[in-house]
Write a structure and sequence with these properties.
366 residues, alpha/beta, TIM Barrel, 8-stranded parallel beta barrel, two-stranded antiparallel sheet, 16% strand, globular, binds flavin mononucleotide, NADPH dehydrogenase activity, YqjM-like, FMN, flavoprotein
């Protein structure tokens, strides 16, 4: 397989990447009391030394009392946490890498396995955890304004600390996605509507504030998923027209790059075409896109949480789509979590050294 096309540079605004491979954001919960330590900085620096083009951090939460349900998820606020992130980006740059934090608010959550709870009730569009079950409060207009300001502050801090871009976590059933998703958004105000485009006001307000804080030249990525933890086959946008209306609102608000989360990148988004989510997002908005989902592995990431192992698999289908121009960047999760040298091995054809993925890799910062 000829992977040369993945090793072409990519530039957009503040982003100047040496290749097209992105480390997908992956929560590691190795930051006690929300403070990323030297071990976290070293973990990301190893990926930079391993020639990952763009490192996206694990989800790191904004300054709201209940933005996280796990005390070991890193904060992106407070002097100590930001010092840890400053060391991280300096170490990543020293190793020749580029990085952006994934800025996150988890919204309405269930109970963390240790029983730990944040100091305030969870907050979300309607307090809905799943159909028939609430856990937390519906955000007031004042809460919404404060959350938007906290997203903006985090993005401004990302730029000030020297990060190359910022990614907003708008996927996987967390706060921004809870507004997009008709099951968790039961509001009766302007933040709700019949279509996903009509439920995008909260997201566009967040994006506009982030843009205002970072200026025109700083790249803003948003991660989106049609799938939900409550329903892996869900489609909020059921047609290309609905998807175009949704994504173009986000682009107009200030998004530069769409990070289109799928469990398996080769699955078509709509009938009648083999284009995947990233392929459609690029076609409908003209913006660069990132694809993700089981690149180089035989099983998807949810099977990994269930304890199943995955074996290395061919990149041929990925390359076919990439070379056709479907997307600009390729995010890789578990392979890079388990092996900081994964990108170098792909680049240099060291395929016999590629490892599979088993969930033991989650237990430490390799
Ligand atoms: C341990 C782990 C933690 C994850 N945490 C996040 C996260 O914080 N934010 C996010 O957007 N996705 C998260 N994901 C999803 C990954 O970014 C990625 O989309 C998924 O693993 C599919 O890519 P892969 O098949 O290459 O692993 C996580 C996945 C794993 C395995």
């Amino acid at each position: 397989m000829n992977v040369n096309s993945l090793f072409q540079p990519f530039s957009l605004k503040s982003l100047h990447l040496k290749n097209r491979i992105v480390m997908a954001p992956m929560t590691r919960s190795f930051s006690p009391n929300g403070i990323p330590g030297d071990n976290v900085a070293a973990y990301y620096q190893r990926r930079a030394a391993g020639e990952v083009g763009l490192i996206l951090s694990e989800g790191t939460v904004i300054d709201r009392p209940s933005s996280s349900y796990d005390p070991n998820i890193p904060h992106f606020y407070g002097e100590q946490a930001l010092k840890g992130w400053e060391k991280t980006i300096n170490d990543v740059h020293a190793a020749g890498g580029s990085m952006g934090p994934q800025i996150w608010h988890q919204g309405i959550m269930g109970k963390y396995h240790t029983g730990w709870l944040p100091p305030a009730p969870f907050e979300g569009p309607s307090g809905i955890l799943k159909p028939g079950e609430t856990n937390g409060k519906a955000m007031t207009d004042a809460d919404i304004a404060d959350v938007i300001a906290a997203f903006g502050k985090a993005a401004a801090d990302a730029k000030r600390l020297g990060f190359d871009c910022v990614e907003l976590h708008g996927a996987h059933g967390y706060l921004i996605d809870q507004f997009f998703y008709e099951v968790t958004n039961a509001r009766t105000d302007k933040y709700n509507g019949k279509t996903v485009a009509e439920r995008s006001l909260f997201a566009t307000e967040v994006i506009k504030e982030v843009r205002r804080q970072v200026g025109e030249d700083f790249a803003i990525i948003i991660r989106l998923s049609q799938w939900k933890p409550l329903d892996y086959t869900h489609k909020m946008a059921k047609t290309p027209e609905e998807m175009g209306a949704w994504l173009n609102l986000l682009a107009d608000a200030g998004i530069d790059i769409f990070h289109c989360s799928q469990r398996r990148f080769w699955e078509p988004e709509f009938e009648g075409s083999d284009l995947n989510f990233a392929g459609w997002a690029k076609k409908l908005t003209g913006k660069p896109t990132i694809t993700v989902g089981s690149v180089g592995l035989s099983g998807d990431f949810l099977s990994a949480f269930a304890g199943e192992s995955s074996e290395p698999s061919s990149l041929d289908e990925l390359l076919r789509r990439y070379d056709r121009g479907d997307f600009d960047l390729v995010a890789v999760g578990r392979p890079i979590l388990a092996d900081p040298e994964w990108v170098k091995k792909i680049k240099n054809g060291r395929t016999s050294e590629l490892k599979g993925f088993s969930k033991e890799a989650l237990a430490q910062l390799l």
